[in-house]
Specification:
The chain has 134 residues and is mainly beta. It contains 1 helix and 13 strands, in the order βββαββββββββββ. It has one helix at 28-34, and strands at residues 2-5, 12-15, 22-25, 39-44, 49-53, 58-60, 65-67, 73-74, 76-77, 83-86, 98-102, 119-121, 127-128. The strands form 3 sheets. It has a 7-stranded mixed beta sheet with strand order 9-10-4-3-11-12-13. The chain has a 3-stranded antiparallel beta sheet with strand order 1-2-5, with no helix packed on it. A 3-stranded antiparallel beta sheet has the order 6-7-8, with no helix packed on it. Strand 7 (65-67) and strand 8 form a beta hairpin. The longest helix is centred in the N-terminal third of the chain and has 7 residues, at 28-34.
Length: 134
């Protein structure tokens, strides 16, 4: 079980079941919404995600959802009923492995991807070699 919240604690949620490895999106839209690096999220099954408070404070943005009070990234539903959860909103430092880097061809030149062993994909979803000097 993992709890999460926004900066002002108005939005609170709990993960009570299975979740994915971290997906790191390096596209220019995610870079703008984070104010820097990639958006880092996990995907949670609809039966494994529970809103504890503040669901009414969540506003949908063009790419991500945010808390209306503090602007912190917030969980948002996917078309298949699952939830995408920003790992920065999780309370505590959980040991969740990075599973993939997507839109690697769009990453900023100053954003260096470490040797984490995670799969890398181009903007078109094509697999990329791991040791490209990213």
């Amino acid at each position: 079980m993992m709890d999460g919240s926004c900066l002002c604690k108005g939005v609170r949620f709990r993960i009570v079941g299975r979740y994915s490895e971290i997906s790191m999106c390096h596209c220019s839209l995610c870079r703008k919404t984070t104010g820097g690096g990639p958006a880092s999220e996990i995907t949670v099954g609809d039966d494994a995600f529970v809103w504890l408070a503040g669901q009414e404070l969540v506003a949908e943005g063009p790419k991500h959802s945010f808390c209306r009070n503090c602007g912190c990234h917030a969980p948002y539903p996917l078309a298949d009923g699952k939830m995408n959860v920003p790992v920065g909103a999780l309370d505590g430092a959980h040991a969740i492995p990075i599973g993939r880097h997507i839109y690697v061809d769009s990453k900023a030149s100053w954003n260096v991807i470490g040797e984490d062993g995670a799969a890398r994909y181009s903007e078109k979803g094509e697999p990329l070699p791991l040791n490209r000097g990213d």
